[in-house]
Specification:
The chain is mainly beta. 5% of the residues lie in helices and 44% in strands.
C-alpha cells in the first residue's frame, strides 16, 4: 500500500484515499462519544458513549492510578451518572469519580475501599458540571494476573 494511503491513525485502505478515511473517522477521532465530550487518559474512548453495554467486546480501557478526564464542551446539568463496568467474568473494581463545577474538584463517588462491578449509579448535586475525572485503583483480576492493571468501562450514561 502506498504511504500516501496511510492516515495519522495508521489505517490503510487501497480503495479509499486519506481524505475519505479521515472524514469517516473525524466524528470519533480524539473524542469519546461523537462530540458528547473530550476524553483523555483512556483507550477506545468512543465506546464510553456509544449506547452499547453488556457486550464482552465493547469497552474502553484505562491504566489503574491514571486519571481519565472527561471534559464537556459546555457545562452540563447532570443529576446522575450511570457507569457500566465490564464485569462479564465476575471482576470488580475500586475507583473514585470527581466532578468539576467551578474549576475545583469534588468527590461524587468513592469506591476506593469496596470493589464493585456491573452497573453503578451515583448522584451529582453540584450543578453544572464542566468535567468528570475517574481514577481506577484496583481490578480484582490483578490477583490472578498482575498485568491486568486496568479499569474497563462499557458505557457512561449522563442523566440530566
Amino acid at each position: 500500500v502506498p504511504p500516501a494511503l496511510q492516515t495519522a491513525a495508521g489505517y490503510r485502505n487501497e480503495l479509499l484515499g486519506v481524505q475519505d478515511i479521515d472524514a469517516y473517522l473525524e466524528p470519533i477521532a480524539g473524542t469519546g462519544g461523537l462530540g458528547v465530550a473530550t476524553v483523555t487518559g483512556m483507550v477506545r474512548s468512543v465506546q464510553l458513549f456509544d449506547g452499547i453495554s453488556g457486550r464482552s467486546d465493547n469497552w474502553a480501557i484505562a491504566a489503574l492510578n491514571e486519571p481519565v478526564l472527561i471534559e464537556f464542551p459546555e457545562p452540563r446539568a447532570i443529576r446522575m451518572v450511570r457507569l457500566h463496568l465490564y464485569s462479564a467474568d465476575g471482576r470488580a473494581y475500586r475507583f473514585v469519580v470527581e466532578a468539576s463545577t467551578d474549576g475545583n474538584w469534588r468527590s461524587v463517588a468513592d469506591y476506593s475501599e469496596n470493589a464493585v462491578g456491573g452497573t453503578i449509579e451515583f448522584d451529582i448535586t453540584a450543578g453544572a458540571v464542566s468535567a468528570l475525572r475517574i481514577t481506577g485503583l484496583h481490578n480484582s483480576r490483578q490477583e490472578d494476573d498482575p498485568n491486568n492493571a486496568f479499569l474497563h468501562i462499557e458505557e457512561i450514561e449522563l442523566i440530566d
